[in-house]
Amino acid sequence: MAGKTLYDKIWDAHLVAERDGESVIYIDLHLIHEVTTPQAFAGLRAAGRAVRRPDRTLAVADHNVPTEGQAKGVDAVADEEARLQLQTLARNVKDAGIEFFPMGDIRNGIVHVVGPEQGRTQPGMTIVCGDSHTSTHGAFGALAQGIGTSEVEHVLATQTLRQRKARNFRVWIEGEPPPGVGAKDYALAVIGAIGTAGGTGYVIEYAGDAIRALSMEGRMTLCNLTIEAGARAGLVAPDETTFDYMRGRPASPKGGAWELALENWKSFFSDPDAKFDREIRIDAAALIPMVTWGTSPEDVVRIDGFVPDPATYETADKRAAVEKALAYMGLTAGQPITEARIDRVFIGSCTNSRIEDLRAAAAIAKGRKVASHVAAMVVPGSGLVKAQAEAEGLDVIFREAGFDWREPGCSMCLAMNPDKLQPGERCASTSNRNFEGRQGRAGRTHLMSPAMAAAAAIAGHIADVRDLD
Ligand SMILES: CC(C)[C@H](C(=O)O)[C@@H](O)C(=O)O
Ligand code: SF4
Asked: What is its EC number (predicted)?
């Protein structure tokens, strides 16, 4: 019998029932936030059901929260819909006895930053959240999937999820990356290579020495963006880097339980003879920093590259799509991407708001100044990341350089709170989506790494971080 992949192993360990190809799997951890849960709780209540495992559920407030004045509390949130969602979540979790880090609590932050930080996210687990970027948690070798609101209700009620098993896809990333290249560039390179539908129907496991060399923060960035390649989840097998990160977290196993957990976690890897349905290889040594030029995460270009010319595409559909994207983005075919002058910079989001991301951006910002026409902001992923950054003096570096230093939340990753682009504004952003209107109506988003976003802030246009003097 052929060996098993990491995905197969986690799947098999959680399989409750199977019929006609459809399965029921047990869910170890259910993360919830204010946007995708009100209807689910209302549905439960209407059906007279209780939350099955409040102890395996954790709630945060992240999408709607303002990134200034959080100490004033939820009742002071200006937007009525946001305020109502935040108040509803607080009531629902209280009624159900679910642990909740409300806005202003130092442990609160973006759900995909908080789960790992608290040690709630653990290797070998099944994790769900009514949020597409749940794939982030795959960095720990957990099967972590985004689910819809009706599935949120199903998980709240039963602690299980119904689904069909996906296929196995392995992405090898090998070689020594050049300076300035990291996890965000790997992710953009993968999406650029396979497209936003390239991962459809698959769970992607990342393997290779360049993956082994990544920190947990880097692995989270990569798994976070896996959803933008269309895959159901991303995975990295746990190793010493993972275990080091887990050690001593509030919810990590302690004492004898730690040894037992370690032994279990170490069994989660793909067997050498496991069969993958698809595999690709990326040479990390051949990469340079990557940015997006268009309105899809697959619209990727090397920083020494040019805005594409619609005429060079094969199909009429594609030519029309590229023309539309260029018009929306206010770019001209054939111009160097570094000519794009920016108005705003956003360093944050569940892709890149962890301590290592902030350190990378601060290393570039240090002793330099944000260009006078640029408004730049740094939004830590959680209160604990913010506190850590402040303990390291990163806030001072950012402020002295002219960045705004904010309180945690999803912020300008999506236009669901006061942090938004104005129509026509161009933003260098460390987030994960560049769709039309994503950061505000008619706003223009270029995705890139924290170091590259900081470099753009200083240069005032999209810039190669390696060229800064
Ligand atoms: C609001 C939420 C449902 C949404 C998601 O699922 O991804 C958001 O987090 C996003 O990034 O667009
Ligand atoms: S930071 Fe952005 S991508 Fe992440 S959960 Fe929030 S809105 Fe979604």
From this structure: 4.2.1.33
